């Protein structure tokens, strides 16, 4: 349980980092980032999982780049749900998905040592 909370907080921090790097991707404050991280996680675990299973052949043909498109769609959907979290279009969502994927790999690598 404690690891899940740490992962959630680190994911919110990753959203704040993406806010500083990607133009058109904004999170107002840490509270919005925490809610957005939770909503993105739930969306990826449910709808995102179903979409990744259905579009698996596209993921193979594109060497996994299409998975970033699905993650960008989940980010856009989360921005419609969470107030204080705004994404202006597919391009910022795609770049944010790429940055969040890279930061997520770093987070998982750091958490696996414990």
From TrEMBL:
<keyword id="KW-0472">Membrane</keyword>
<dbReference type="Pfam" id="PF04020">
    <property type="entry name" value="Phage_holin_4_2"/>
</dbReference>
<feature type="transmembrane region" description="Helical">
    <location>
        <begin position="58"/>
        <end position="79"/>
    </location>
</feature>
<keyword id="KW-1133">Transmembrane helix</keyword>
<feature type="transmembrane region" description="Helical">
    <location>
        <begin position="85"/>
        <end position="107"/>
    </location>
</feature>
<protein>
    <submittedName>
        <fullName>Phage holin family protein</fullName>
    </submittedName>
</protein>
<keyword id="KW-0812">Transmembrane</keyword>
<feature type="transmembrane region" description="Helical">
    <location>
        <begin position="33"/>
        <end position="51"/>
    </location>
</feature>
<dbReference type="InterPro" id="IPR007165">
    <property type="entry name" value="Phage_holin_4_2"/>
</dbReference>
């Amino acid at each position: 349980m404690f690891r899940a909370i740490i992962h959630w907080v680190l994911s919110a921090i990753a959203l704040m980092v993406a806010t500083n790097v990607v133009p058109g991707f904004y999170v107002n404050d840490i509270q919005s980032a925490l809610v957005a991280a939770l909503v993105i996680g739930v969306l990826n675990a449910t709808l995102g999982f179903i979409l990744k299973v259905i579009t698996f052949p596209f993921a193979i043909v594109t060497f996994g780049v299409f998975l970033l498109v699905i993650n960008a769609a989940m980010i856009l959907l989360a921005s419609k749900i969470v107030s204080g979290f705004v994404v202006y279009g597919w391009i910022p969502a795609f770049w944010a998905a790429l940055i969040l994927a890279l930061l997520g790999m770093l987070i998982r690598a750091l958490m696996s040592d414990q």
